[in-house]
Write a structure and sequence with these properties.
Oligomer: single chain
Order of helices and strands: HHHHHH
Number of helices: 6
Mean pLDDT: 71
Radius of gyration: 40 Å
Shape: rod-shaped
Number of strands: 0
Protein name: PRKCA-binding protein-like
Length: 137
């Protein structure tokens, strides 16, 4: 090896050592700043950013688990025939519309029977409705 190669290697080794010491110093500062709250306030609040990242990750995990649970509930309800989860999700509107029409029909029938039985005996007033009353002048 020549003298110039030794000088180049020595210079590069000094540079590598200085660089590694600087990296070690930065890592030590970051480790110390995690436990020192006043430095975190001035350095950009590392703990707060970590907290936000964890919150975002937990939110993603929650929504993925929620989707899995809803999918499993849909599969269970499809297995049993009628859907209970569909009521909350707005699916299977045909079934709900039929239920609504059946309930309204029962309600109308009960009101009609009550009106026929009670009003005919309470108010026996004959009314003459001819076409002359229904036309507009």
């Amino acid at each position: 090896m020549s003298v110039s190669q030794i000088r180049i290697l020595g210079g590069s080794m000094c540079y590598i050592q200085a660089y590694s010491l600087k990296v070690k110093e930065i890592e030590d500062q970051m480790d110390c700043s995690l436990y020192d709250y006043s430095d975190n306030y001035f350095d950009g609040n590392i703990e707060y950013r970590i907290f936000l990242r964890c919150k975002q990750m937990s939110r993603k995990k929650y929504f993925s688990m929620r989707e899995d649970v809803l999918t499993k509930l849909d599969l269970v309800d499809d297995r049993h025939g009628q859907t209970h989860v569909d009521y909350f999700l707005g699916k299977n509107m045909n079934l709900h519309f039929r239920r609504l029409v059946a309930v309204l029909h029962d309600w109308h029938s009960s009101l009609h029977s009550i009106a026929d039985s009670s009003l005919s005996s309470t108010f026996p007033i004959p009314i003459d409705v001819s076409k002359s009353y229904l036309t507009l002048n």
